[in-house]
Design a protein that fits this description.
single chain, 150 residues, Arc Repressor Mutant, subunit A, 2 domains, two-stranded antiparallel ribbon, 7 helices, binds zinc ion
């Protein structure tokens, strides 16, 4: 049984005891099984089961059963305008969050790759002469460019 937040708050209001409220919370919000609730609260499982039976009667009587517009699954709500089940609302919320995060990532400035400024022919000629002097070679401009890959 899926109940949205509107339905849950109505159910809490209608619960006839604090114990029932706690059982409802553990079962419908925390998704505990009857056995787990019994262990947690220290009651026999049969007590929890009967609390949930009463809760279900309240749900069926006081809440509206609707079919989710998105996934088609039935859910209970006290909001006349609710058209989507809580699961689909949660999924939609996650999707929006994801798109927001993706947008943030693309917005971050990408580190610019600094383009090496091409050397002028005179610079290269100067370097070539220096190279020839240092190394005792007699490379031509073309040889030097090939050698250095400039
Ligand atoms: Zn749904």
């Amino acid at each position: 049984m899926i109940i949205d937040n509107f339905g849950l708050s109505t159910l809490f209001e209608l619960a006839i005891s604090g114990r029932m409220r706690k059982v409802i919370r553990l079962h419908y919000v925390n998704k505990f099984t009857e056995k787990e609730i019994a262990e947690q609260m220290g009651y026999p499982e049969s007590v929890i089961v009967s609390e949930l039976i009463v809760a279900e009667q309240i749900i069926k009587k006081e809440l509206k059963s609707k079919q989710c517009d998105k996934c088609g699954k039935p859910f209970y709500t006290s909001n006349k305008k609710a058209i989507v089940c809580p699961k689909c609302i949660e999924e939609n919320r996650k999707l929006i969050q994801k798109t927001k995060e993706n947008k943030k990532e693309t917005k971050q400035p990408t580190t610019k790759v600094k383009k090496k400024k091409p050397k002028s022919i005179y610079e290269i000629l100067r370097e070539k002469e220096k190279y020839n002097k240092v190394n005792g070679t007699n490379l031509s401009y073309g040889d030097y460019v090939l050698l250095k890959g400039e």
